[in-house]
Amino acid sequence: MGQYELIFVVDRLQEELAFKIGNTIDAMYSEHGGTHLLTVTGDGTTALAAARDIVIQLELQFGVVVHRAYEDLVTKADIADRAGATVQAVGQWVRGVRRKGLPFPEPFNLVGGGVWLWADVNDWLRRAGKDHDDDVLHPGREDVELINEWLRTRSSGFHGRRIDLTHLGLAAGGHHGVQFTATTQFVHGVIAAGERDREVEWTRADYGMVG
Fold it and tell me: What is the residue-wise DSSP string for 37-73?
């Protein structure tokens, strides 16, 4: 079990809701032009497991619309700031002037002199014995891909009749053969309470179980 810091692209949050989320869970909301980011820290055996729990909580408890995981990309200046080093020192790390036995991570993209995934850099700092590595885990490139694939698959499942049992808003508990009552009003995968006359009967086979 580890503690992960994850960033998600979400729909714009009203100030009151962002404040409520930040007071309830370890989260920080920020806006960058038309991009709205929610940084959340949560526990999980893997980054994907942590992301699943976080997304489900954000949707059910706060009605947040989560679009995708966001890559935490950093420039040399960002790395210097986070690592408590100078930009010149970071340049030496990148060029392999020091610690040739521990090569610096490859850039995520070469734009603007290079940007790196913070997860890769933080892992390098930890292995290099630097004092300023984060004390939390960050999703790597494959983790981000897995999280976004889960979000896409999960979102597409709500276009049909099969829904996620975890997100059942109104249900009469039971087992095999017992019918559940659920509303048919959806908000990007979150089942919202609807009018009574919009309720329909669902059998257990109609529900997609969470992996």
Answer: EEEEEEEESSHHHHHHHHHHHHHHHH---EEEE---E
